[in-house]
Amino acid sequence: MPKLSEKDRFIDFSDYGRPAAQFIVRKLIHTKISAIEYTIAFGIVGLVAIYCIYNSYFYLAAPLLILKSILDAADGEVARVKKTPSYTGRYLDSIFDIILNFILLAVIAHITLTPYWVAFLAFVCIQIQGTLYNFYYVILRNKSEGGDQTSKVFEKKAPRAFPQESQKTVNFLFGLFTLLYGVFDRFVYSLDRKASKSDRFPNWFMSALSFYGLGFQLLAVAVFLVLDLSQYIIPYFIMSTVAFPFFILVRKIKY
């Protein structure tokens, strides 16, 4: 977990793909493959996985979802190792994630004959879960000594582009990012406005919260698919949201 200082690192159950991502990056670091190309690759892999789910190739879809998580971690690893931080990659990564989540749940609703409005509710639940995890995680990263500073707790305007990227591209992707994530960010922030004033969050708290991370969410989908329990994927994400208020309450009372 290179985004945090040693004392702030925790067991991140959504980041299981990090070791494999680091291995891939070590092997390919001297190639011309850029971080953004890894991002595009995980987007393609995600679409292929969804296609496999649509055609009931569950045993093929499951490892592809895991590979998507690995490549999702690899793009950031490449950017850090090559010292090429990018707002373009940061926003494109998140935009791909939310679009893939929406399509994934729509396809699962289709194959399980679940009403689409229920699937949309599950999509909202997934995004709220992930937003809460990212909200506290970004706060921790910003406060951690030497921690990653590319992501910000509050993003009200497009950041200044790094020298190696286009400001117009950053502006466009920031606008799209805000359109897709803004409602979830504002909702979570409205529930815990003082979170950023906290000194730090304990490791156990962040580890428990990491079950809401996208990596673990995709792992859960993969497990349900392999067990031929696809009909429980949408209810799982809706029911797992019940712990959402607990995390906010614990943060407010203790930290």
Please identify the top-level CATH class: Mainly Alpha
- Proportion in β-strands: under 5%
Largest sheet: none
CATH architectural label:
Up-down Bundle
* CATH third-tier fold name: Four Helix Bundle (Hemerythrin (Met), subunit A)
First and last CA, distance? 22 Å
Number of domains as seen in the coordinates? 1
Subunit organisation of the chains = single chain
Shape call: globular
Q: Given the structure, what is the number of helices?
A: 10
The stretches of 5 or more residues where confidence is low (pLDDT under 50) are: none
CATH superfamily, by name, is: CDP-alcohol phosphotransferase transmembrane (TM) domain
Portion in helices = 55-70%
Given the helix and strand composition, which structural class is it? mainly alpha
What Rg is obtained from the alpha carbons, in whole angstroms? 18 Å
Extended strand count: 0
The ordered string of helix (H) and strand (E) elements is HHHHHHHHHH
Average residue-wise pLDDT: 91
